[in-house]
């Protein structure tokens, strides 16, 4: 356990140093990612203003707050996905990873966790600039801020487990990219990434309740910008934990079988 903690700390420290070394490139990368939420934001604030100031009870200020916070949550959710596992296997990088005394999953989590600290730091001036332009409605309670701080890391771990589990399919198929695209389309519709879930049809919201995607996007955002009760906030965190554990169980189940297959074919 102590050696695992040391591995995490060392890997996170290395990631932080790397990101600061290329801070200009990283900042331009983050600026590039702002295009998507700004488009959503302009569209929905325009619609809200044309409909008397709100859409289904959601104000223009709410949309501004939602998509500004969205920029942080989206950056927190960038993880090693299925395409990287396909690259790992095809290029033989997995052989090197298997020489480490721990699962590659641990390295993946630790590396991107270190990167996230830099992301949060870079996001602050970006959020200030967007707030000056779009005037968000945001007045969170102290408890909501605490829950949000936990939820963005829960979202990171949840999406890591989902993506790493999906990556295991690359051991059985060369069509990993196609499966990943299907997953991304489903996530886009059911997570709150495209639009806040209350704007989706009722049947879409019903489906989303039984899937993990909203806990990686909508819940972290809504915990800060919405009007959730303390009980709803705690239930959201509990759901994140549950889905993280389910994702971890699925990954470990698939990993044991995948690595046997990899060894059997001469990996």
Notes on the protein architecture:
- The model has no long low-confidence stretch (mean pLDDT 89).
- α4 runs antiparallel to α7 and α5 packs parallel to α8 (142-167).
- A hairpin with a 2-residue loop joins β1 (54-55) and β2.
- The protein has one domain (2-264).
- The chain is mainly α and 267 residues long.
- Strands 1-2 form a two-stranded antiparallel sheet.
- The protein has helices at residues 2-21, 23-33, 35-50, 60-76, 82-90, 93-98, 104-134, 142-167, 176-190, 202-208, 218-225, 230-264; strands at 54-55, 58-59.
Give a brief description.
With 267 residues, this protein is mostly helical. It has helices at 2-21, 23-33, 35-50, 60-76, 82-90, 93-98, 104-134, 142-167, 176-190, 202-208, 218-225, 230-264, and strands at 54-55, 58-59.
Separation of termini? 29 Å
Mean pLDDT comes to 89
Poorly predicted parts: none
- How would you describe the shape? globular
Strand coverage percent: under 5%
Q: Radius of gyration, rounded?
A: 19 Å
How many strand elements?
Answer: 2
Write the layout of secondary structure elements.
Layout: H1 2-21, H2 23-33, H3 35-50, E1 54-55, E2 58-59, H4 60-76, H5 82-90, H6 93-98, H7 104-134, H8 142-167, H9 176-190, H10 202-208, H11 218-225, H12 230-264
Antiparallel strand pairs: 1-2
